[in-house]
Every structure is written in C-alpha cells, then in structure tokens.
Design goal:
Rossmann fold, phosphatidylcholine lysophospholipase activity, five-stranded parallel beta sheet, about 45% helix, SGNH_hydro_sf, Arylesterase, Ester_Hydrolysis_Enzymes, two-stranded antiparallel ribbon
Length: about 210
C-alpha cells in the first residue's frame, strides 16, 4: 500500500535555496523529483522547505515544535536539520552561537524531531570560498574554514551519539568549491545546488 510521507527540511538560506534563480535550490529539486516519482507509482513523499535565510539554531528552537506539529504525517516523517553557517559566523567579535550552545541547541532540536520520527538527517555546513575565508562580508559576518571544521565535527559527533544520519555536503564541495559557490562565496550557485540534490536523491529514494 502506498504511504504518504512528509519530509521536513529545517535550515537557513542554503536550505531555502537563496541565489538559485534557476532551480530554486537543492530542496526544491528534490521536491520536484519526489512529485515526478509519485506519478510513476511510488509512495507519496511530500517535501516542505522550511529554510529561513540568516537563521541560527536559536531561531530554529523557537519555531520547530510548532512546525513539526503542523506537518506531521501519521504514515511517516523524515526530518532534515541544516544549521551552523550562521551560528559560527563571527559578528562584533563573537560567534553568533558558541560551540557549546550550538551543540546544546542541536541536541534539543533532535529531541523535538524524535517525537515524530527516527529518520533524522543532520546536514553538514558547506565550505566557504577562499576569498571570504576570514574576511568580514557585507552582512558584517566573518567565517573561517577552521570554524566550519569545528562546527561540522560537532554535527558528526552528535550524529554518531544519537545514531542519526549525517549528510556530508562539505566533502562533496571541498575540491571544487570555487566553481560550486556563488559570487558571495557562501551560498552555492545553480551548479552547487545541483550537486547537493544529486547527493541527496539516493537518500529520499529510500522512502519512495
């Protein structure tokens, strides 16, 4: 029997798909893929893009319980959590969310998600372009490659400790980051988002 499964993607502008005027970002590519598969007779997998530009894990915790309750399929849910790019950004000399707080916030977010599903995916933070590594951008935020590694390690550790899945977009991007990131050096371009979708399609295939 066909099931109706909801996929909820929590995240910042990279989940939302900012800077992709062509495909609308990786989540929207997956959404279209799932709809197309459904017409071919598989499970109905309905994906919700819940990304908000500039959001940190602090913002996530304020809305997550409500978002989960509003979009809960009795037949199954999958939750994707993609944070860190803003949390680790240094603004006025301090990270927006410290490593300790980031870890605690992620654990709390997982606790919320676990009330609805055991299928939880933590999404890695992407590398930034060489030209903005350690450079304050127009938004007043500064990101470094070192910090990205530190916060990604926190995500990996949490995934292991809680037997969750970790989607390693970081490694996928690392070698070709200069051609996969947009002009601002933080967000993927159309090509980058396409690579993210290709990496994630095998994951959602499992539920189709």
């Amino acid at each position: 029997m066909k099931k109706m499964i909801y996929g909820l993607f929590f995240g910042d502008s990279i989940t939302y798909g900012e800077y992709d005027g062509v495909f609308g970002g990786w989540v929207d590519i997956l959404k279209r893929y799932a709809l197309q598969q459904f017409h071919e007779g598989s499970n109905e997998l309905i994906l919700f893009n819940l990304g908000i530009g500039g959001e940190t894990t602090e913002g996530l915790l304020k809305r997550m319980p409500y978002e989960l309750a509003a979009r809960n399929s009795a037949e199954g849910n999958i939750v994707f959590i993609g944070y860190g790019a803003n949390d680790l950004a240094i603004k006025d000399g301090v990270p927006m969310v410290s490593t300790v707080q980031f870890r605690n916030n992620m654990i709390e977010a997982i606790h919320h998600a676990k009330q609805y599903t055991n299928d939880i995916y933590l999404v890695s933070i992407l590398p930034v372009s060489r030209k903005i590594d350690g450079v304050q951008t127009a938004t007043g935020k500064l990101r470094t490659g070192e910090e990205i590694l530190v916060y990604n390690q926190i995500l990996k550790d949490i995934a292991v400790e809680n037997t969750l899945h970790y989607i390693d977009f970081y490694t996928v991007f690392l070698r070709d980051k200069e051609i996969l990131l947009s002009g601002d050096g933080v967000h993927p371009n159309e090509k980058g988002y396409g690579v993210m979708a290709e990496t994630a399609i095998p994951i959602i295939e499992k539920y189709l």
